[in-house]
Amino acid sequence: MTQSNAAPDVAAGRLSDEEYARNFADLHPLLDPHEARVEADRCYFCHDAPCMQACPTSIDIPQFIRQISTGNPTGSAKTIYDQNILGGMCARVCPTETLCEQSCVREVAEGKPVKIGQLQRYATDHYMSTNDKTPYTRKAASSKRVAVVGAGPAGLACAHALAVEGHDIDLYDARAKAGGLNEFGIAAYKSVDNFAAREVDFILSIGGITLKAGQKLGTDIHLADLRSQYDAIFLSIGLGGVNDLGLENEAKDGVLNAVDYISELRQAKDLSSLPVGKRVVVIGGGMTAVDIAVQSRLLGAEDVTIAYRRGQDRMNASEYEQHLAQTNGVKILTWAQPKGLVAQNGHISGIELEKTRETGGALKGTGETVTLPADMVFKAVGQTLVPAVLNGSGPAPQIEKGRIVVDADRKTSLDDVWAGGDCVLGGEDLTVAAVEDGKIAAAAIHRALSA
């Protein structure tokens, strides 16, 4: 293995305060009223609405855009919230370029879709700036109690929908703050001004939801106990484990989980306090890999490379996100998989990558290697469910392929337990998909409790 002779260079405060502020400013600044009206007027208001069909939460996109074009952003927001109570965050973080906007007739005909995501943000930001509460009123109390475990997008959507129906919800989360992925896992430049926390407060304003933070399933609370205390349970516990590379020296300083670092960055009061390497290598090809790579550059890293084991067209990160990385100076090295980690005086100093090829659908190493110097190596190769949190004195939901098995109503193998988000089999690592899971489960739970 080729050795790296350069001493590790990891430091905080690489940039000026002005550079940090500029680098982590809002990726897509809010449209002003005139810009929103002009953009809304580009919509054809299609009868069959392919954009709406492409939206996982089935928002009536032509309707909300028409309401913006007629000067009714409040009504537009209500149309959005009717299907997606987290419409504000989804407008910021959803890969609209591969969902609604990709299906837009103008995209197909002209290559320039209506800016659906930015229009959705315009409407929802307007509503939240002029209203303290969601546009819904709770129905009469049902006397039914539901435990929602996990206060991320799926849990918040489920809790709000059930609260509207008059049920009382205890919303548990292992962290000290609610929000899940939106609060801890999204790139900082996608969600500025503490928006995730403000949206949580907005959702909880419906009433009937009691947040119980710092309560971890399997440690502080247990599924069997919850089943004995509540009429129904919804699990949106996410994926608490992080896949390792399985390499020697992986425990050395400088080898980090991208998820943990992004969480630390999102909660940092002062970005200049975050240490970052001069040379950074990210292993992975998804959204997390892009997020950590771009943010490393924005924190002052000079040389950042994403290494992915297959071709760029196979990366889970959208084409837009890949371009975002490249325009921020991130290099994308494809057909390369980690083979070894170089350490020097207890700290990582490089990573050996083996070139790969695909033969008959199987990925194989070619034996040819390259070693990149690295002061930091971020692992962004996927997360896993920690099934032990579901164990206890009673039965646990069925697990298959490392995920909770659910039916079309998001019901597990246990009669009183539903689940959603990326912890379930077939679940996606998308805020909008998690919201839809929460909606579907809430409707099914309400039917069960009303029977």
What do these coordinates show?
- The strands form 6 sheets. The chain has a 5-stranded parallel beta sheet with strand order 4-3-2-5-19, with helices on both faces. A 5-stranded parallel beta sheet has the order 7-15-9-10-11. A 3-stranded antiparallel beta sheet has the order 12-13-14, with no helix packed on it.
- It has helices at 17-23, 33-40, 50-54, 61-69, 73-81, 87-93, 100-103, 105-110, 116-130, 153-164, 181-184, 195-204, 223-229, 258-267, 287-298, 319-327, 431-450, and strands at residues 10-11, 145-149, 168-173, 209-213, 232-235, 241-242, 255-257, 276-277, 279-283, 303-307, 330-333, 336-344, 347-359, 362-373, 376-379, 383-384, 399-400, 403-404, 417-419.
- The longest helix has 20 residues, at 431-450.
- 34% of the residues lie in helices and 20% in strands.
- With 451 residues, the chain is α/β, with parallel strands linked by helices.
- The protein folds into 3 domains: 10-24 and 242-382, 3-Layer(bba) Sandwich (FAD/NAD(P)-binding domain), CATH 3.50.50; 33-130, Fumarate Reductase Iron-sulfur Protein, Chain B, domain 2, CATH 1.10.1060.10; 145-240 and 385-450, FAD/NAD(P)-binding domain, CATH 3.50.50.60.
- The chain is built from 17 helices and 19 strands.
